[in-house]
Amino acid sequence: MSANEAKLKSDNAGSLVWDLPLRIFHWALAVSLMGSWITAEAGFEWTQTHFLFGYTALGLISFRLLWGLVGTTHARFRNFLSGPKAVIQSLKQLPKSTPANGVSHIGHGPLGGWASVVLLALVMTQAVSGLFISDDIFYAGPYNSVVSNSLANYLGWLHHTNFNFLLAAVALHFLTVTWYLLGKKENLIRPMLTGRKNLGEKMLQTAIANNLFFRGLCIAGFVAAAVYLIVTLAPEPEYF
Ligand code: HEM
Ligand code: HEM
């Protein structure tokens, strides 16, 4: 390990657990969802901006799916998706205090891991359904003209209904993080900002050595280009 990697791995601020691309993804996703929500409520003159926030969310989720395969250790799906036994165990631990070392899990725990996947799936459903729907008055998503009216109506219903589930999931997410902070006295938010947790000597080897920032940038560029092409190569949008 190089001196620089060793420094990244551990210093006074703790050991690196969440890489920078994942952290940027997380907070950008929160902003894009807030933006999508506000612009959906703000009236039809905000619809184009709603689309832009929606495309951003679509790109972010696509990025995260790829990062789950080629990102750093704790970002990889295979390292945080576990079987039902572990999930039940993790549920039982939820009301209990955090272990004495102050860290319940190095990356996601079994429960948090599946909760992340549920959030990702809900946002993906929201963004993809948006591509095919219209408000029946002024605006249509870029692929509205390729689906039948009845399918567009169904996807419109899905866009509306799924959003309520998404809101509930985000509220639960927020409540859980708050419970960790106030009830279990474990701050999960700081690591999502700084990337670091105080792992102590014993668990130090589980820290990640590198942010893989350049790899993240390449994937972000690839995903941005793909979303751009998906949107611009769509048939002419139908305005009413
Ligand atoms: C629309 C809003 C939000 C969405 C959709 C969202 C979604 C997610 C997702 C998908 C993850 C998994 C990260 C990954 O592995 O990629 C996550 C983790 C996390 N989020 Fe959020 N988030 C939102 C808002 C927030 C807010 C407002 C906070 C802080 C108050 C927060 C705190 C956290 C923390 C601490 C984690 C890491 C949990 C752990 O340690 O297992 N999130 N979030
Ligand atoms: C994940 C990001 C997105 C979120 C959170 C979101 C959220 C919403 C919400 C809450 C509404 C109002 C629904 C209602 O009152 O029935 C709405 C409407 C709409 N959204 Fe999205 N949306 C997203 C992405 C998209 C995308 C990518 C597109 C298309 C490119 C899109 C196109 C539309 C259209 C056309 C409407 C109007 C539907 C109507 O009036 O019946 N949305 N969206």
Produce a short descriptive summary:
By secondary structure, this protein is mostly helical.
Structure description:
The protein is mostly helical. It has one domain (19-232). The protein has ten helices and three strands. The chain has a three-stranded antiparallel beta sheet. Strand 1 and strand 2 (14-16) form a beta hairpin. 28% of the residues are buried. The model has no long low-confidence stretch (mean pLDDT 93). Bound molecules: protoporphyrin IX containing FE (2 copies). One protoporphyrin IX containing FE is lined by residues 22, 26, 29-30, 33, 64, 108, 112, 116, 119-120, 170, 173-174, 177, 188-189, 192.
Quaternary structure annotation: single chain
Which class best fits the helix and strand makeup?
mainly alpha
The total strand number stands at: 3
Shape: elongated
Instruction: Count structural domains.
Output: 1
Ligands, deduplicated: protoporphyrin IX containing FE
Our count of helices gives 10
Strand order in space, largest sheet? 1-2-3
Keywords:
64% helix, mainly alpha, 10 helices, 3 strands, 240 residues, binds protoporphyrin IX containing FE, 3-stranded antiparallel β-sheet
Task: Outline the secondary-structure elements.
Blueprint: H1 3-9, E1 10-11, E2 14-16, H2 20-41, H3 47-70, H4 77-80, H5 84-93, H6 110-130, H7 149-183, H8 189-194, E3 196-197, H9 200-203, H10 213-232
Antiparallel strand pairs: 1-2, 2-3
Helix pairs in contact: 2-3, 3-6, 3-10, 6-7
Bound molecules: protoporphyrin IX containing FE (2 copies).
